[in-house]
């Protein structure tokens, strides 16, 4: 019954319930967003071992900062902001902040199955070659965020995000077209 | 999260969407449970029970104590009752005062009561330590007799009383009539 009620509650209400010590509320929130964040991290850096680490760090960051959470911004925006910060920290650690994913090995998840999956792998590889800022904006948009939300998460202006997205798509088209 | 605007959102790309592992989920959820913000329980403070008891006792004492009327209220009630009495008596008084004979008599009596007797006035002016000689005493008794004869009995008696009080050595009789009887025959030739 309680989990059913939690499912009907908004992200912000669940987070506030967790702030009051309701661990079930957090569990509901986690199941709602865990796969989305995991996919975002994977698409940003397609190495499962690293993604596991980053996802864990991001969620533990949410737990640790729960007491300070204010529902002014949406929970999802806040969560991805934390996730992106962990990603940036990781890139810094790897001294690869401004680099691309060109040096990375082939995606671990690649199984070479159906056509759609193959396309996805090709797309991911092309995205990996984009500059980090363009890649971030594109992947966040893919997660359903608006220009304003992306600007909020990355700390950039909306116009900047708009132009980054335009360049990213153009480059993707060119690269995938070349491969055809 | 706001909705997509300006038509920039295109169809989702067929990107790989791996899911988090069960181990990772368990690890994160266990951490979240262990580190959940502490639930604030509103347990009453220790002094709250004592305060509540004291409050109840105070209310009980207030109820049990005999109710003393408020002084100001009492005063008002007294004032109102005296006004009521006055209002009840006033018509009778005004009725009495309408009689001219009575009115004159009352005013003369009031005047008399206000004024000391002539002999007493003289005695007072002479001083309480004054001692009257026999002749003076005789004169005063004569004056009292005259007042009595003139019908001013009250004034005559008041003068005689004053004379008695200021001449204790004379051993004057109690009543004015006795004193006149004892004194005047000697005086009358």
Spatial extent as radius of gyration of chain A: 17 Å
* Percent in strands of chain B: under 5%
Percent of residues in beta strands of chain A: under 5%
Secondary-structure element pattern of chain A, one letter each: HHHHHHHHH
On the 0-100 scale, what is the average pLDDT of chain A?
A: 86
Give a description of the structure.
Chain A has 180 residues and is an all-alpha fold. In chain A, 72% of the residues lie in helices and 0% in strands. Chain B is an all-alpha fold. The longest helix of chain B is centred in the middle third of the chain and has 27 residues, at 71-97.
Which terms summarize this structure?
heterodimer; A: 180 residues; mainly alpha; globular; B: 189 residues; 8 helices; 0% strand; rod-shaped; disordered N terminus
In a nutshell, what does this entry contain?
The complex is a heterodimer of chains A (180) and B (189). Chain A is mainly alpha-helical. Chain A contains nine helices and no strands.
Reconstruct the topology from this structure.
The complex is a heterodimer of chains A (180) and B (189).
Chain A: H1 2-8, H2 11-19, H3 23-44, H4 48-64, H5 75-93, H6 115-128, H7 132-142, H8 147-154, H9 158-179
Helix pairs in contact in A: 2-3, 3-4, 3-5, 4-5, 5-8, 6-9, 7-9, 8-9
Chain B: H1 22-34, H2 46-64, H3 71-97, H4 100-114, H5 118-126, H6 134-149, H7 153-166, H8 176-187
């Amino acid at each position: 019954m309680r989990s059913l009620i939690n499912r009907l509650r908004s992200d912000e209400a669940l987070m506030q319930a967790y702030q009051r010590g309701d661990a079930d509320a957090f569990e509901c929130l986690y199941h709602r967003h865990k796969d989305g964040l995991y996919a975002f991290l994977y698409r940003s850096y397609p190495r499962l071992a690293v993604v596991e680490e980053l996802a864990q760090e991001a969620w533990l960051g949410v737990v640790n900062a729960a007491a300070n959470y204010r529902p002014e911004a949406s929970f999802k925006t806040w969560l991805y902001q934390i996730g992106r910060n962990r990603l940036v920290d990781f890139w810094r650690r790897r001294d690869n902040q401004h680099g691309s994913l060109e040096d990375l090995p082939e995606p671990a998840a690649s199984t070479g199955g159906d056509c759609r999956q193959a396309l996805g792998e090709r797309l991911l590889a092309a995205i990996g070659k984009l500059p980090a800022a363009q890649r971030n904006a594109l992947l966040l948009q893919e997660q359903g965020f608006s220009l304003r939300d992306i600007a909020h998460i990355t700390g950039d202006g909306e116009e900047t995000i708009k132009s980054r997205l335009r360049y990213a798509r153009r480059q993707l088209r060119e690269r995938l077209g070349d491969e055809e | 999260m706001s909705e997509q605007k300006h038509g920039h959102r295109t169809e989702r790309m067929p990107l790989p969407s791996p899911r988090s592992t069960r181990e990772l989920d368990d690890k994160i959820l266990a951490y979240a449970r262990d580190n959940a913000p502490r639930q604030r329980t509103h347990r009453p403070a220790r002094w709250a029970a004592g305060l509540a008891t004291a409050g109840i006792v105070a209310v009980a004492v207030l109820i049990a104590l005999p109710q003393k009327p408020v002084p100001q209220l009492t005063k008002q009630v007294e004032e109102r009752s005296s006004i009521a009495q006055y209002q009840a008596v006033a018509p009778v008084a005004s009725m009495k005062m309408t009689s001219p004979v009575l009115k004159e008599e009352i005013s003369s009596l009031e005047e008399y009561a206000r004024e000391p007797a002539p002999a007493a006035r003289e005695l007072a002016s002479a001083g309480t330590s004054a001692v009257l000689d026999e002749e003076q005493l005789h004169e005063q008794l004569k004056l009292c007799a005259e007042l009595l004869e003139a019908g001013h009995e009250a004034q005559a008696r008041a003068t005689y009383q004053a004379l008695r009080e200021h001449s204790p050595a004379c051993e004057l009789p109690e009543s004015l009539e006795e004193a006149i009887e004892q004194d005047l025959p000697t005086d009358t030739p």
